[in-house]
Amino acid sequence: MEPHDTLSPAQVDEYRKNGFLVQEHVFDEEEIELLRAEAAQEFASGGERVTVEQNTGIVRGVHGCHLYSEVFGRLVRSPRLLPIARQLLRDDVYVHQFKINAKRAFKGEVWEWHQDYTFWHHEDGMPAPRALSAAIFLDEVTEFNGPLTFVPGGHGSGMIDADVKGEGWANTLTASLKYSLDVETMRGLIERNGMVAPKGPRGSVLWFDANIPHSSVPNISPFDRGLVLITYNSVENKTDVTRGTRPEWLAARDFTPLTALQATSF
Ligand code: SIN
Ligand code: MN
């Protein structure tokens, strides 16, 4: 494993310019096997934290695992993640949201174009886009298994007006997203900046900005595309719990700054 405690100045510049950054070989095979086994248990746990694909009823994702699983509770405090989240957000951080998206072979459905901050602002009362996500690859991500796709530099447009579908928070989790970006908006952004779908081996980490427009196509390959997505928020950017509508497993209520693990397990 290469040292990954903080990013180099060139990596920070790349992240600020593009709104995302990939690091390969952050977690080794043994660690990924442990995370995959724990993810399988979470998928099988049933209950309100598990969401399913609309067309087939197979598992789409599970939220809030860091609150229930000791392994994922340790992962969010990893010395390979936490110092980088702090470095990029220039502050102490806590976990606002945690999810594992399954994107199963043949069955994993679309994620429409959106910005995460729109959800965190409207649904959870997050005051500013001082948050980011780390996506940990539980499988190799290829052009065929529904990679996350970004408009490089698109975070520079700030929060863009979105099409709003439906009431309540249930469709903040489904393929038909509550806040999605329309075709004219996306055409303008993509004509200017293009699209990039970062690929990489399992164990990679993909960092991305709260305001970067992103999507992912259905998984037409015979291989799953599992991702653990951890959203860190600056402790100065606490959500307004009086405005928040979503349960704690979807939007944190505990703003205690995280401390890095001392042990080497994650
Ligand atoms: C997300 O937009 O938060 C996740 C999309 C995906 O898993 O492809
Ligand atoms: Mn998203």
From TrEMBL:
<feature type="binding site">
    <location>
        <position position="114"/>
    </location>
    <ligand>
        <name>Fe(3+)</name>
    </ligand>
</feature>
<feature type="binding site">
    <location>
        <position position="99"/>
    </location>
    <ligand>
        <name>2-oxoglutarate 2</name>
    </ligand>
</feature>
<dbReference type="GO" id="GO:0005506">
    <property type="term" value="F:iron ion binding"/>
</dbReference>
<feature type="binding site">
    <location>
        <position position="216"/>
    </location>
    <ligand>
        <name>2-oxoglutarate 2</name>
    </ligand>
</feature>
<feature type="binding site">
    <location>
        <position position="216"/>
    </location>
    <ligand>
        <name>2-oxoglutarate 3</name>
    </ligand>
</feature>
<dbReference type="InterPro" id="IPR008775">
    <property type="entry name" value="Phytyl_CoA_dOase-like"/>
</dbReference>
<feature type="binding site">
    <location>
        <position position="214"/>
    </location>
    <ligand>
        <name>succinate</name>
    </ligand>
</feature>
<keyword id="KW-0479">Metal-binding</keyword>
<feature type="binding site">
    <location>
        <position position="103"/>
    </location>
    <ligand>
        <name>2-oxoglutarate 1</name>
    </ligand>
</feature>
<feature type="binding site">
    <location>
        <position position="114"/>
    </location>
    <ligand>
        <name>2-oxoglutarate 2</name>
    </ligand>
</feature>
<feature type="binding site">
    <location>
        <position position="214"/>
    </location>
    <ligand>
        <name>Fe(3+)</name>
    </ligand>
</feature>
<keyword id="KW-0560">Oxidoreductase</keyword>
<keyword id="KW-0223">Dioxygenase</keyword>
<feature type="binding site">
    <location>
        <position position="225"/>
    </location>
    <ligand>
        <name>2-oxoglutarate 1</name>
    </ligand>
</feature>
<feature type="binding site">
    <location>
        <position position="225"/>
    </location>
    <ligand>
        <name>succinate</name>
    </ligand>
</feature>
<protein>
    <submittedName>
        <fullName>Phytanoyl-CoA dioxygenase</fullName>
    </submittedName>
</protein>
<feature type="binding site">
    <location>
        <position position="116"/>
    </location>
    <ligand>
        <name>Fe(3+)</name>
    </ligand>
</feature>
<dbReference type="Pfam" id="PF05721">
    <property type="entry name" value="PhyH"/>
</dbReference>
<feature type="binding site">
    <location>
        <position position="101"/>
    </location>
    <ligand>
        <name>2-oxoglutarate 1</name>
    </ligand>
</feature>
<feature type="binding site">
    <location>
        <position position="172"/>
    </location>
    <ligand>
        <name>2-oxoglutarate 1</name>
    </ligand>
</feature>
<feature type="binding site">
    <location>
        <position position="114"/>
    </location>
    <ligand>
        <name>succinate</name>
    </ligand>
</feature>
<feature type="binding site">
    <location>
        <position position="216"/>
    </location>
    <ligand>
        <name>2-oxoglutarate 1</name>
    </ligand>
</feature>
<feature type="binding site">
    <location>
        <position position="103"/>
    </location>
    <ligand>
        <name>2-oxoglutarate 3</name>
    </ligand>
</feature>
<feature type="binding site">
    <location>
        <position position="216"/>
    </location>
    <ligand>
        <name>succinate</name>
    </ligand>
</feature>
<feature type="binding site">
    <location>
        <position position="225"/>
    </location>
    <ligand>
        <name>2-oxoglutarate 3</name>
    </ligand>
</feature>
<dbReference type="GO" id="GO:0016706">
    <property type="term" value="F:2-oxoglutarate-dependent dioxygenase activity"/>
</dbReference>
<feature type="binding site">
    <location>
        <position position="101"/>
    </location>
    <ligand>
        <name>succinate</name>
    </ligand>
</feature>
<feature type="binding site">
    <location>
        <position position="101"/>
    </location>
    <ligand>
        <name>2-oxoglutarate 3</name>
    </ligand>
</feature>
<feature type="binding site">
    <location>
        <position position="99"/>
    </location>
    <ligand>
        <name>2-oxoglutarate 1</name>
    </ligand>
</feature>
